[in-house]
Amino acid sequence: MITCFIKYEIDPFKRNDFEQYAAVWGEAIPRCGADLIGYFAPHEGSATTAYGVYNVASLAEYEAYRARLAADPAGQANYEFACKQRFIRSEERVFLKLASAPHSAFKAEQ
Question: How far apart are CA 55 and CA 53, in angstroms?
Fold first, then answer.
């Protein structure tokens, strides 16, 4: 399993557009085969940094997922919305694998 982290630099005056964009991906990404962890909009600190995070089984599965997403009508419309509204200044993807597994639950001793 690998996790894709998408770091966005967004226009701080168009945060609502980014949140609308994120909501559409909230339905389209799982439908097209990736395990969406979520989209994260600025809250405190930076007003321009946002993230999208999802899991895929492999880079090969990522390529197949991206093809399905590109063919998805909601995915196509969302991409066009982002191009038209120009709220994304830049985006950067990085693929990471979990290195801290297995996780153990913290148990407070009494």
Answer: 7
| Residues in Cβ contact with 37 at an 8 Å cutoff, skipping those fewer than 6 apart | 3, 53, 54, 55
Identify the three-state secondary structure at position 3.
strand
Per the structure, the complete domain to which residue 21 belongs is given by 2-91
Q: Is the pLDDT of residue 104 over 80?
A: no
Residue 102 falls inside a structural domain: no
pTM of the model: 0.87
Structural domain contains residue 105: no
Give me the numbers of helices (H) and strands (E) for the chain, helices first please: 3, 4
Cβ atoms 86, 11 nearer than 8 A: yes
29 vs 77: CA distance, rounded Å: 13
Asked, for residue 54, whether it belongs to a domain, the answer is yes
